[in-house]
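Q&A FORM
Asked by: J.P.
Topic: structure of Dipeptidyl aminopeptidase/acylaminoacyl peptidase

PROVIDED:
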Amino acid sequence: MDATADRSPASGPGRLTPDLISTTWEPTVVRLSRDGGRVVWAAAPHGRTGEHPESGLWTASVADPDSARRLTRGGNDTAPRWSPDGSRIAFLSDRAERGTAGLYLIDPDGGEAEPLVVRSRAVETIAWSPDGSALALAVPADPDDEDQRREKERDDAIVSGERLARNQLLTVPVTGGDPVVLPVGDLHPTVLAWSPDGSRIAFIARPEPELDLSTDAAVYLVAADPGQPGGTPQVERVGAAPWAEDLCWTADGTELLVLGRQATSLQSSATVWTMPAAAGSTGRVLGPRIEEPLCALGVRSPGPGAPAPAVITIADGIETRLEWRGDGPDATTTLWESDGEILDVDVAMTADGPVLAALVHAGSGPLEVWAGVPGDLRQLSDHHAAWSGITFGAVQELISRTDDGWELHSVVVLPTGGRPGPHPTVVLPHGGPYWRMARNLHCAWHDWSQLLAAAGYAVLLPNFRGGSGHGNAFASAVLGDPGVEFDDVEAVIASAVEAGITDPERLGIGGWSNGGFLTAWAVTHSTRFRAAVMGAGVSSWPAMVMTSDVPTFSADVAGAAPWSDQPGHSLEHSPIARATQVTTPLLMLHGQEDVRVPLSQSIGMQRALRGRDLPVQLVVYPREPHGIEEHRHQVDLMTRVVDWFTTHLPV
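REPLIED BY: S.T.
REPLY: Here is the structure written out as C-alpha cells.
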C-alpha cells in the first residue's frame, strides 16, 4: 500500500496564523543520489526576514525515515546536485557575498563547503559531468573595464540591446582551477545537461537575457572540451524550443528530452518533446500528445535499464501522477499515482527497479519530502511539525460542466468546525492563467484558503479555461479572449450552490496575478460579490503589453497589441473599461517593484474608482516584485485579506 494513501491534514486544537505560515520552512527542490540510497533537498521559509533570502540543505537516507539532518545554514543555499558517485553535493550559495550565488561543493556527511566558482555576478544553473570530474555552469560574464568605468563615473546610460549581461557557459574541474569558457556566441544559456558519454553539453538558450525572447528559445549542443580531437568549437542548433523549461538526455545519449510547449505561445499546454541529439533535428511529442486532456509538469531520464526513456510528471485535472513514456500511444504506463500534488520529483534506476524522491502534498496535507519505491514512499522531512495541532478545512474535488461543454475539475476547501452548509463563500481564481488548483493544503501567503476556512468561509478554487491539467485545447481557449474564463467561474459557483456548499447571496472573490485580473473582471461585470481582493491584477491589457516584462505573452492573451490593426480589442477585454460598473468593496494589493504586472495596473484601477461612494483601498509593498517575499509584508497582506472579507462579507 502506498504510504501516502492514508495521510491527511493534521487536526487538533492549534491555531493557524499569518505569522506561522510566513515563518514555516518548506522544501523547494529534491534530488536522489544515483544509487537511489540518499536524498538531498533545499528548504526555505515562505517569507524572508532579512535583506536576502535564506535557504538550507538537508539530507536523509531513503531507507530510514528518521535520518533527516540539516547540512547547511546561514546563506541562500539552493539547487543541490549529487555527484555521479554520491561522494559530494554541488550547490549554489551566496555565503561569500549575500545576494550573489557562487558554486560550492560539500561532503554529504557534513563539514565545510568548498567554494569552486565565486564571481561578481550570480551563477544561475549547474550540471555535473558524467564522470564527476567537472561541472558546467551558466553565469553572466564579470563586468569588464568599461562596465566598471561607466559605473564609477556614473556614465551609465542604458541603451536598448547594448552591453547585455548574457550568460556564459563554463566548465570547471572539481579539483579547482580556472573555468573554461565554451563558445556559445551571443546566446543566453539557461538550462544545461551533460551528455552521458561526457563529450557534449546540451543547453536551452534564447538570443538575449530578456525573458520575453523565450519565444525564440532553442536547444543547442557544444563540445564539452572543444580542444580535444573531434571537438566541435562552434555551437550547433538542434531545434526550436519556445518557452522550454527543462532538458535532459536519454540514457543512451542519442536523444534529448525537452519540457516545452505544444505551440509557440506560453499560453499553450506543457508537454515533453524528444529531439535527436544532432544539428537541425525535428522534434516529436513524447507526451502528452496534443489531443490528450493532460499536461506535463516535469521530465526525468531514469537511466539505463528503465522500461521507457522518460518519466513524466502528469497533471490530470486536480490529480498528479508519474508515467513511463516512450514512443507511441501504447508505450505509456503509470509509475506512481499520488494522493496529493507532486511539485518536484527525481528518479534513480537500481538493480531492484526505480526509486523515487518527491515533494508531495500527501493526503492534501503540507508539502514534505517523500522517497522510496513506487507504492511504498515514506516521509523523510517534517518541516511542518509546528502545524501538527491545527485543524484544517477539508479539501475536496468539485466537478462542474459549462454551458458549452467543458468539464471542470475544481477544488473546494470547507470551513473548519463541521457546520452544515450553505456557507458564505470566497472564490479564489488561480494565477497564470496557465496554472491549476490541485490536491494540496492551499495554505500560503498568496493562497488564503485555509485562513479563510478557519474564519468560517467555504473557499472555491475553480480550474477554468486557460489553466493546466486539461490539455492544449483547454489551455489555449483564452487566447485573444481574456475574461471568457469567468463563465467557468460562474459554472463552478453554480455547482457549489447546487451541492449545498455555497450561499449564493454571500459571495466574495479574490486572487493574485491572473486571479487578480479575474477579480477585477468579476467586479466590473457582476454585482453579486460583496467583497473583493485584487492582488497584482491586470486592469488594462494595452498597458500590460506596453509595460510588462512579458509583452508577447500579454498580447497573445489580450488578442492584440495597442498598435495592431485592432487597437480597441485589448481595451474591450480590460476591466478598466467597465470600472464605472463596480459596486463591490475592493482591496488592491501590489508590489512596488513588480515588472510582470506593473504597479500602474492597480494605480489605474484606483484612479478609476476615486470619488465613488465605495470602500476602495490600495496597499503597496515597497521593494517587492510580483511575488511578495518579505515576512512582515506577507503577514500584513494575509491579515488584510481576512479582515477585508470579515468586514464586508461577515460570516
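FOLLOW-UP: The longest helix spans residues 631-648.
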